[in-house]
Amino acid sequence: MASKPNIRSFSLEELSTFFTERGEPAFRAKQIHQWLWQKHVHHFDQMTNVSKPLRAFLESHFDLLHLHPKTVQKSTDGTVKSALSLHDGKVVESVLIPKGKRMTACISSQVGCSLDCSFCATARLKMARNLMPDEIYDQVVEVRQQAIEHFQTPLTNIVFMGMGEPLLNYKNVISAIDRITHPDGLGMSPRRITLSTSGIAKMIYKMGDDQVRFRLALSLHAATDEKRSKIMSINDSNSLDMLADAVLHFYESTGNRVTYEYVLLRDFNDTDEDARALERYCRRVPCRVNLIEYNPIDGGEFAASTEEQTRRFIDILERGGVRVSLRRSRGKDIDAACGQLANK
Ligand code: SAH
C-alpha cells in the first residue's frame, strides 16, 4: 500500500484549505491542528470532538506518526537521556539537563551526522537522514514531559546540541522552531532556544537574512585554521575568517551576539598561546565564550584539560575582556554528555 501523507507535514493554513474545500466549517482545521500539536494525540480516534466519520476519513487519508521512547536513562546528576524510536525504526537521542529551576532540553536535528569532528562520538555514526519538523518538535514534547515528571518543573530552555548539524537541516529545524515558539504550538520564547553549529558560513548568513530570533552558538574549538582543520574538516571550506564575517552579519542583522563553544583538549588547544589566539579572535565580533569540559569518547585521542590549565585559560580570556563561562559535564555516566550521543 502506498504510504499516506503525514498529516503533521501540513501547516494550519494548508489544513484549513483542505477542510474548507471538503465543506467542513472553518474551525475544523484549528480543532484538528490543536489535537496534533498541543494535545499530542497518537491516534485519530483520540480526537473526541471530531465526528466518527471524519476521524475515519482522516485515518484513511493520512498517517499520524509519532516517536516513542525506547530507553530512558537517568544519571546520578539528574540528567535524563532518552533514546527515541522514529516511525521507520531509526533512533535519535534527546537529553534533559536539570540545573536548579533551569530545565534544558538538548535536541537532535539529524539521525547521525555527516561531519567528522574528531572529538565527537556522533561523528562515528553514519548520517542516516534529516529529522522532519514533527520529529524535532516531538523530542521537545517528550523532554518537556520528563521535566514535569522528574522535577515538577517546566522546560525553560532548548539547545540544538544533540545529534546532527542543524544548519544542514535548516528548513526542518526552522519549521520546528516556528511551531515550538508559536502560541498554537508550545509557545516558548525564541530567546530561550540556542542553535549550535559546527560553522556553515553560508547558512549563518542566511540566519541573519531571515532575522531569526533564537540564539546562535558556534563550535569553534580552535582559533587558528591550522588547528581547527585538524579536528574539524568542515573548517577546510568554512575558515575562521569566513565564519567571523558570517557571524558579524548575523550580529548586525539580529542584534544577537554569538556564543563560541570551545572544548578544552589537553595540550592540543588549551595552552596559553591558544587562549591568546582565541582572545584576539573574539575582538572581531561581539561574542561570549562557553568553554566545554571534554567528555571522553570510546577510542578518543584526546584528554580533558586540567583544572589548573582551565583556570589559566579563563584568566587570559577574562583579562582580555572576554565574557567566559565554563560548561561542566553532565550525564557522563550514561553517555549523555556533549559529544557522547551515539546510540550505544
Ligand atoms: N553539530 C552541532 C551541534 C552538536 S554538538 C555543532 O557542532 O555545534 C554540540 C556541542 O558539543 C558542540 O559544541 C560540539 O563540538 C561539542 N562536543 C562534541 N564532542 C564533544 C566531546 N567529546 N566533549 C565535549 N563536547 C563535545
The value of Rg in angstroms is 21 Å
What share of the residues lie within helices?
25-40%
From N to C, what is the helix and strand string? HHHEEEEEEHEHEHEHHEHEHE
The oligomeric status of these chains comes to single chain
Low-confidence stretches: none
Summarize the structure in words.
With 344 residues, the protein is α/β, with parallel strands linked by helices. The protein has two domains: 7-61, DNA polymerase, domain 1, CATH 1.10.150; 68-334, Aldolase class I (TIM Barrel, Alpha-Beta Barrel), CATH 3.20.20.70. The chain contains ten helices and twelve strands. The strands form two sheets. The chain has a ten-stranded mixed sheet with strand order 1-2-3-4-7-8-9-10-11-12. It has a two-stranded antiparallel ribbon with strand order 5-6. α1 (12-21) crosses α2. The two termini are 34 Å apart. The model has no long low-confidence stretch (mean pLDDT 96). Bound molecules: S-adenosyl-L-homocysteine. S-adenosyl-L-homocysteine is lined by residues 119-120, 161, 165, 196-198, 219, 261, 263, 292, 294-295, 297, 338-339.
